[in-house]
Amino acid sequence: MTTAQEAMAGCAASESAAALELSGIVKSFDHVRAVDGTSWTVQQGDFVGLLGPNGAGKTTLISIIAGLVKGDSGQARVLGIDIAEEPNRVKGVLGVVPQDLAIYPELGARENLQFFGAMYGLRGQELKDRVADALRRVGLEDRAARPAVGKFSGGQKRRLNIAAALLHRPQVLILDEPTVGIDPQSRNYIFDTLRELNSEGMTIVYVTHYMQEVEALCRTVAIVDHGRIIEEGSLDGVLARHGTSLVRLTLHAEEQRRALALLEKHPGVTYRVTDDGVLQLSTRVLQDAVDLVTTILKDIAPNPETCQILPPSLETVFIGLTGNQLRDV
Ligand SMILES: Nc1ncnc2c1ncn2[C@@H]1O[C@H](COP(=O)(O)OP(=O)(O)OP(=O)(O)O)[C@@H](O)[C@H]1O
Ligand SMILES: [Mg+2]
Questions:
Q1: How far apart are CA 128 and CA 116, in angstroms?
Q2: Can you give the pLDDT at residue 241?
Q3: Pocket test residue of 27, 31, 59 for ligand 1, highest count of atoms within 8 A of CB
Q4: Is the pTM of this model over 0.85?
Q5: Please, where in the chain does CATH 3.30.70.870 lie?
Q6: Which CATH class is domain 244-311?
Q7: CATH 3.40.50.300 in the chain, residues?
Q8: pLDDT, tens digit, for every residue of 257-305?
Q9: Which residues pair with 224 in a beta bridge?
Q10: For residue 69, which atom of ligand 1 is closest to its CA?
């Protein structure tokens, strides 16, 4: 047997184990601590969003889970299988859709999938059936033979990239930013495919820096920043714990000083000045935020450089925890 065939055969993962169980994972590159002591558990059947800004360490973390990068320390198990001890068994139960497209541009879609399926030891009718099923899942049956996938649209390439990870019918699927640069139609197609796979029992870890995608798709979320998970739990739970309304105001120095003096008289409001000089207030009650900002605009700063009122969402959770807007950092 080849190692890939061993991986396919060795799929008897523990039914009661967590889908992912990470403990104390650390990975540094030169002076950058890309993953800084991550411990994280994902239950079987979950649809979880791993959300964090550029450079937060998301890809490094999943590269360690996929066995593509070796962590400096810590332990990772997929369905109870230790990735350091039995990497080939992990490959049999885990599908990874990489952030960078991993397809052969000069081949057609079916040829690409036949190639990847053969790498997993699939042959003959089984290979044909799995390729046909994967093409159907991502809506590429009509473009199976031609053109060569180098001529596909961005969305079609992304869908093929997903199909390649489904051929060995993994129990756990990790997707690293699978919708970057594609139109809303392709995005919705991918969302429907993932919902279908999850409803059939597949555990899905969806890596993204788009908060709206997590809100639309996922039941649970882990927010990662600077290589650490800074908050995790069910979407409802995270919003209930941190779901404040935020006001962000950029004011001139004198206006900011007067606004801060006003805020001192409102003990129910928490506020801070962020590193980039934005005055940020948070309140549990949206109306309180609206009232306060109305007063500031009327009495102190009629022409602020910027003024934003953000109702509770994952975005306000992230800003509240880190003081930064997700895409700015
Ligand atoms: N092979 C490498 N060599 C050196 N530094 C690296 C390497 N891979 C990642 N890094 C650094 O580790 C940090 C985390 O990078 P990583 O790609 O994991 O982030 P990310 O959260 O996936 O970001 P993005 O949203 O941009 O994909 C960054 O500072 C990055 O520059
Ligand atoms: Mg990445």
A1: 12
A2: 84
A3: 59
A4: no
A5: 244-311
A6: alpha beta
A7: 3-234
A8: 999 999 988 877 888 898 889 998 888 777 888 888 999 999 999 999 9
A9: 229
A10: 1
